[in-house]
Design goal:
Blueprint (H helix, E strand, L loop, with lengths): L8 H8 L3 H8 L11 H13 L6 H8 L4 E7 L10 H12 L3 E6 L14 H4 L4 E6 L4 H8 L6 E4 L7 E4 L1 H14 L5 E8 L10 H16 L5 E7 L11 H7 L4 E4 L2 H14 L8 E3 L5 H4 L7 E3 L2 H18 L8 E3 L2 E3 L5
Parallel strand pairs: 1-2, 1-3, 3-4, 4-5, 5-11, 6-7, 6-8, 8-9
Antiparallel strand pairs: 10-12
Helix pairs in contact: 1-2, 1-3, 2-3, 5-13, 8-9
């Protein structure tokens, strides 16, 4: 049986009554093109392409344009239940779609011992136009050192560098939530880190851990309050059998308000309080960080700091495409984003 002939842009041009160049611009628009098309023309060309079941020949297109039409999204974290704000990927996806590009998802194995043997092959194969690296753990500095040699256009998302990165002003945000608790009249406010079994120490964690503590301390000092930090030890970040250690719970009860490193830890404190008959916020106020799924599915409306993840994802992708145009050696100023304080019923 003879395979059906592959539909080409020449076929689309004939069916739509336009030039081949117009079809190319309608299907893969280029801002620097001299061909300007009416919206109705673009819609007609795309409709005809859909009706004819046109499928671009990616190999041929890559040769012609010296572009793969694909950017990578590297979720630089391990574990099954390790999650980061979903807006990051959504923002990158939408910008890639606007540029007519696809996304290749990349991640690390669930459990790794040596990152030098686990780096994905895409960093050596060079079949991507650029890579957005989303960092959410202590692996950030290791990955940064490894991928610099790839000479791929790289943008770091949620990882702070002087250039080519998009990150959160965690220090400012922590000061905001601390000020909120002070204004609400809480006297003894404690900042809570979390260390997991077998995980890194606070000093080895993602820079947000230190930045959030710094913001908290500055706000407490400004208010002439004594800052108190405590490290909570848990088996993992989330899990069905996760419990607070008795010594950590006793330390928490020494205060009338706590700021948890993230919303997952805030939820664990809230569940423990419910099980122990401690009223929130009457006996203990709880605030979290991130403002993503964990806060929106909390036992009650959680006071948190919402990271503008979608906007950050879009910015990272826009910077990635700017690097594609300018070359991997281009240094773009890093983009810093301030989160929003979301007062809830827990403070």
């Amino acid at each position: 049986m003879t395979a059906p002939r592959r539909i080409t842009i020449k076929d689309i041009a004939h069916a739509a009554g336009v030039s081949i160049a117009a079809v190319s611009q309608a299907l893969r628009p280029h801002s620097n093109s001299n061909i300007k098309l009416q919206k109705e023309t673009v819609e007609r060309v795309r409709r005809v392409a859909l009706e004819l079941n046109y499928q671009p020949h990616t190999g041929a297109r890559s040769i012609r344009s010296n572009s793969f039409g694909t950017i990578g999204y590297f979720a630089a974290r391990t574990g099954v239940f390790t999650n980061s704000p979903g807006g990051y990927l959504a923002g990158v996806h939408d910008v890639a779609e606007e540029h007519g590009s696809r996304i290749t998802m990349i991640r690390l194995p669930v459990s790794i011992d040596d990152i030098s043997t686990a780096m994905p092959s895409v960093f050596s194969e060079r079949n991507l136009d650029a890579v957005v690296i989303e960092s959410y753990s202590e692996l950030a500095h290791q990955i940064y050192e490894r991928v610099q040699a790839s000479r791929l256009p790289l943008i770091f998302l949620n990882d702070r560098h002087e250039t080519n990165s998009v990150y959160v002003d965690d220090e400012w945000a922590a000061a905001e939530v601390t000020d909120h608790l002070i204004e609400r009249g809480y006297k003894s406010i404690c900042y809570l880190h979390r260390v997991t079994d077998g995980g890194p120490s606070v000093k080895q964690m993602h820079h947000s851990a230190a930045d959030r503590e710094t913001g908290y301390r500055k706000a407490m000092k400004k208010a002439k309050r004594k800052p108190v930090c405590h490290v909570v030890h848990t088996a993992s970040v989330v899990g069905p059998d996760l419990e607070l250690r008795e010594e950590d719970w006793e330390a928490i009860l020494q205060h009338d308000a706590v700021i948890a490193y993230d919303d997952d830890l805030a939820n664990l404190i809230g569940r423990t309080a419910h099980e122990r008959g401690v009223s929130i916020p009457k006996q203990l106020a709880v605030a979290g960080f991130n403002g993503d799924y964990a806060s929106m599915s909390a036992w009650q409306k959680l006071t948190t700091v919402r990271i503008p993840s979608y906007e950050m994802g879009r910015k990272a992708a826009e910077m990635a495409f700017a690097l594609v145009s300018g070359g991997s050696e281009t240094a773009l100023p890093s983009s810093v984003h301030r989160p929003d304080l979301v007062p809830g019923h827990t403070t």
